[in-house]
Amino acid sequence: MPERSGTLADDPFSGRRPTSHERKSGLPWDASYHQGPAPWDIGQPQPAIVRLASEGGFAGAVLDAGCGTGENALHVARLGLSVLGVDVAETALAIAREKAATVGSTIKVEFAMADAFQLERLGRRFETVLDCGLFHTFDGDERPRYAASLASVTEHNGTLYVLCFSDQGPDTGPHPISQEELRAAFNPSNGWNVAAIKPDRIQTRYHDNGAPAWFATIKRI
Ligand SMILES: C[S@@+](CC[C@H](N)C(=O)[O-])C[C@H]1O[C@@H](n2cnc3c(N)ncnc32)[C@H](O)[C@@H]1O
Q: Which of 126, 128, 105, 124 is nearest to 55 (CA)?
């Protein structure tokens, strides 16, 4: 029987609700990866994540939410940790899997299609969760759902790291976030405790020295 139009097979959002970013741009996230590297895809892990890893910031099972082409997840996996990277962009996931295949089975890394708003569907829990450049793509009305979704997969006393564009300084990134917005999104009423928010940088393909960022360390209560 021929498929009806409008079925999941021809839905670029695979049945999920498009995010605010996708509604504004009119394109699914996957399209960002169709014509060469996306602006945030610097072909190496973010320096802030490399530094965090060298300081022993990652422990236990690690989730990378919105992993893109997997540079950060692969970096953490190379340290011997077990990492799951999830994204809604199948093209990015395919690139990430190719990179993982070149490293071989010495590292424990998986890349899976999953919506960051429905992480409970993974049926898994993580001691460390990384959000490198995802939180800042969500509008205020999406953040409570995202914080709840993250909470559903983070072990109690686990750690969430959020690296996002900040609203401080010149040459801010496209989705600048204030410290207050971070504290409003993650607070004891929804199972989170902001332990620290520090100024940092996010490198992009179009900033010479990166864009101002916040590096937030957030504990699951
Ligand atoms: C700015 S990019 C950052 C990618 C990667 N973390 C990095 O540092 O290169 C945001 C990523 O989040 C993904 N993303 C956006 N909305 C998502 C959602 N609801 N669930 C999972 N991934 C999502 C996008 O496809 C994109 O790969």
A: 128
